[in-house]
Amino acid sequence: MSKHLFRQFFEHESSTYTYLLADLTTKEALVIDPVVDTVERDAKVIQQLGLKLRYAVNTHVHADHITGSGKLKALFSECESVLSNVSGGKADVYVGDGEFIKIGESGATPIILECRSTPGHTNGCMSYVWHDYGAVFTGDALLVRGCGRTDFQQGSSDVLYTSIQKQIFTLPDHYNVYPAHDYTGQTCSTILEEKTFNPRLTKSRDEFIEIMANLKLPYPKKIDKALPANLLCGLQGDV
Q: Is the pLDDT of residue 193 over 70?
């Protein structure tokens, strides 16, 4: 019988993945990258399974959707929001590179996430590594056969290239990659797959920078509303 629970949820408008992790011994749980529009769905599952939500974790301050952290905190009194200590956003808990997030009991069946700073998409991007499960939650830094854009929000193609090569691609090849988004219907990848097949990250640094400079992506539809709200844990105005 499994000692942990792992669920991947999808929000279709922004193509965002939300992840639910729980220690089934203590029933303590955390969510990664919740979306305000699907908080009721996520909360229902958490309540049905009798879980105690400890943390609402964001990989970065998002620009394409409003985080559900604030609403989850209102629904679950013990829940605390988590962000990178250089994100510029409001949170209950700030984490830095090399620190750990833990739920469950030490010596029993805890879930421990290693925080790895992966700036470049934004300066506050954080990837979370679940070594016991062989998984990394990469946010918008590394996507399946792609990566996050670098043309706004303190973005830097040069910095992102370094982050992925040094902080993500140094993980074991068999580790699963779980991104914050996918626009083609793929749910996950592996470190080896991305090192081998990612059309951007298999290039040299200079080639990567040139590719990123010529993407010509449209401005995110919700950025003017999402960014200010997400700096305040997703709670601003009428959201």
A: yes
